[in-house]
Amino acid sequence: MNRTQPNFPEKTTIRAYYVSMFLYWGALYIYSPILSVYAQSLGASFTTVGMVVGAYGFVQMWLRVPLGIWSDRLGRRLPFLYAGHFFNLVGCLGLALAPTPIYLIIFRGVLGISAATWVAFTVLFASYFPPDQSPKAMGVVTAINGISLIVVNGLGGQIAQMWEMGTTFYAGAVLAAMGLIATVPIKEHRMTRQPPTFRQIWRIMTHPSLMLVASITALNHYTFWATTFGFIPVHAANLGANKFTLGIIGVAALVPYTLTAPMNHHFAVRLGENRAVFVGVLVMGVTMFVVPLIHNIPLLTIAQGTSGFGRGLVYPLLMGLSIREISGEDRATAMGVFQAIYAIGMFLGPATAGAVADAVGLSGAFIIAGAVSVIAAVAALILLGTDKRPVKT
Questions:
Q1: How far apart are CA 321 and CA 333, in angstroms?
Q2: How much is the pTM?
Q3: Please, what are the domains in the chain?
């Protein structure tokens, strides 16, 4: 495989990158199966639970563009990887020690700072590949992300079941510390360039293709974060799921997502980009309409798996498409814009779902999430291109 930087110590750098990224996502998500239920145990209402989950996306919404611009101006990605692991460590310790839901919101926001550095993670990895292979590279990144989430969701639920829910946050802090160490062997070539002007930054931020893809992804994330990482665990707990089972339900959504992600470009080759996104997002939407009718754990687990399959079809494809038309030196800024826009969905999904659940019940939250997915699917079908050759395979 050709690299854009042939002098890299490829095996050492890429292997270290895989480990670092695995631990980065592990620290961010090991507690996700029990976060909503834990917030309720501290006295949080549905609205407050939504704010706890959504604070993560709220911070990213504001930080990802500035971090992308900063990274492009420095011509560096590695410092942001270190920062990501550091804020993971602080955030997980803060959640473990939080006495009230307000503190959960604050330290969930700290973890949002960590997640905002994902801009640098993705662009650094994409730099190891030719530009026309960026969607394929994002498929690899997404697969590793999914593997990490599968492992830590099961582990997090088991830890909470064996000891107590707070212990899961300490486990996240341990993973974050390990991630800092794992990042040390990663190398990069520092880019030398003139700092981008405001006009250049504005041109990147308003690139039509980038804005379109990011907007569709934001709608997709609205549904995912309102449900899988928001109120599916609450619904499952209401059906009698214990902490370990909550982890299994989370894994059920992530296994199909992870298995499907590396193949998303093949679906796009056969269906066309717009149809591939349409099918994946519509699958997620239909699943959410069905969730309120489910009253047992096995069926809920199957529904989560179906939703995960749909997300795996579309997310890495959209991530790759967002920077395909952007030059290499501007990609961190573009990725920052993309991730900042979809973070709006990460914030509004759980935040509005919580308010709706308090007003009319959990079923209303799932139905609205399904409707948002249908809107995103139709937008993708009509507005995205129909290119059937998005990557070189």
A1: 15
A2: 0.81
A3: 10-188+197-383 (1.20.1250.20)
